Amino acid sequence: MSTFVLNTKETTALITALESYLPELATERVGTDNREWHAELKAQEATLGEILMRLKAEKS
Prior knowledge:
Oligomer: single chain
Number of strands: 0
Number of helices: 2
Strand content: under 5%
């Protein structure tokens, strides 16, 4: 497991990027007919969503 420290500017930029990307990822996931790809996108969405929640909690 890797650990690194983000400054406030970096944290804000990453939160903004994730908030922008996650809805697009969800749209892509819903639009696919490939079950394997759907599952992979769902897993990515869950992982990135958890990271976003942790970043927001750290920022508060």
